[in-house]
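Case study 2.
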Amino acid sequence: MPQAKSNEFEWRFSIRPDQVVSSGITAENACRRGNLFEIDVQHLPPFVRLRGESSATVASHDRHVFPVQFDSTGLAKGQYEGVVVIRCVTCRKNDCSQDRELLHIYMTVEGERAGPPFVPDRVLVVVPFDSPEGVEALAKKLAAKHGLQTGEIQRLDSIHAALIVYALPAGSDVLAKVAELLPEVLIAEPDYLFQTSGVVQENSAPANVEYGPKLIHADRVWSSLSGKGVRIAIVDSGIDVSHPGLKSKIVEQLIATGKGWSADNHGTMLAGIIAGGPENSGGIHGVAPDAEILAIKACQPETALAIQAQCWVLTLAKGLDFAIKKKARVINLSLNGPSDKLLPRLIDAAIDQKIVVVAAAGNDGPHGHPGFPAALPGVIAVTAVDAKEKLYPLATQGDFISVAAPGV
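Prediction:
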């Protein structure tokens, strides 16, 4: 990082297309007293994400590293420039002339970008549903003609269609096979990958997370409006259905991943936020404590205790179809991924049946690309604020956002 001026620095590096690289930006306190330093998150370059708190107290002649990520997702080959401003908030008050540092970043994206990630050697095909026999015959015909191996066939009753999963020979060009199939079917596409939206926050004791219902005044109406009779589908990772605060709320379960049921962190936390019973959950009061939960496991955690989980078009399609058939009043999708062709059809079917579809706006920062399904028409896209009603620094922003709600 060569120095340009006393308070200005340059950082030049290269990155591959559609790559995310973790690093850190250092704030150094040259004063004789400890001071508060902060990164200007409102003007971060669009390819820089702050992965933690935006401010920190730094002891005299010490330094603090703010963890960041550099993200080339969606960027074409070339150089991208931006400036990160690191301010000393209290230096002048403490009789120190140190004010701010400017970090000039020059990020070069080398090579051509790839498209959204998907499962290799797999193609999803959607055809009209007439009868099980008719769909099976069509599946075999397409497989023989295009050199495919037929996997599972899933009825999608909510859109009167069938989803056929085809396996391709190892190393096949998935996109080329999709283009080959398209003229003969309703939809052909790769099995794109999605990720649950969630970050680990420190100080997450009950006293620090209970602010949500109070901030939106849900606590004022629990005596008359508690979610009683409202069925909410949580399409996510698994839920701890044996948890004392949740077990009476789960009315049905679906395993869409084929990997067995598991009590996962992300899905369980969502269920607690929505419908947790305070008398059995350590004092945490869900927003709608009398609501019924459809627990739909469509995402698999990266590790057993991880917040992050991966989902697929295939599993999400199964989950959405199940939620619609089971007459959910609300479908919750706290996940993000690329725009595809199948999931919007299912979401449109849900909205046509007056089902409220809620999705997380994403945590890709103020300049992040709109995520799906949140950016689809008719979906309530929700971004996050903290207990002081301050926007979460990593919240994705844009015209597609419908509402901000407690989420930190």
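The chain has a mean pLDDT of 89.
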